[in-house]
Amino acid sequence: MPAKKRCQLQAEPRCNSAVLRLVGQCPHCRAEFCSAHRMPEHHNCQNLESCRQQAFEKNKAKLESERTVASKMAMA
Questions:
Q1: Over pLDDT 90: what percentage of the chain?
Q2: CA–CA gap between residue 8 and residue 18 (Å, rounded)
Q3: Cα separation of 41 and 36, whole Å?
Q4: What are the residue boundaries of the AN1-type domain, all occurrences included (predicted)?
Q5: Which CATH number is 1-63's, of 3.90.1210.10, 4.10.1110.10, 3.10.129.10, 2.40.50.140?
Q6: Distance (Å, rounded) from C-alpha 29 to C-alpha 61?
Q7: How far is CA 41 from CA 7, 36, 62, in A?
């Protein structure tokens, strides 16, 4: 039986917890983490800022495309 994969957190002290099978891989840096460090904020993900910027730009474009413009009414 192969050894269990361990958390790849690079901080001190080293985390020796087992990796989560389904959700333990970070979608941004592709490293594998335990339940305590699986979120990008918790393992200081190097790609987190670019991810935030992409999400911001995507949401901005969506909001701008859905913006409604009130028609100006002429004063009588």
A1: 9
A2: 10
A3: 11
A4: 1-53
A5: 4.10.1110.10
A6: 25
A7: 15, 11, 25
27, 45 Cβ separation under 8 angstroms? no
Place of tokens 């409604």: 68
| Distance, CA of 37 to CA of 15 (rounded, Å) | 9
Q: How far apart are CA 4 and CA 17, in angstroms?
A: 9
Rounded alpha-carbon distances, angstroms, from residue 31 to 36, 62, 64, 68: 14, 31, 35, 42
Q: How many CB atoms lie within 10 A of CB 51?
A: 14
| pTM check: above 0.70 | no
Let me know: does 34 contact 4? Beta carbons within 8 Å: no
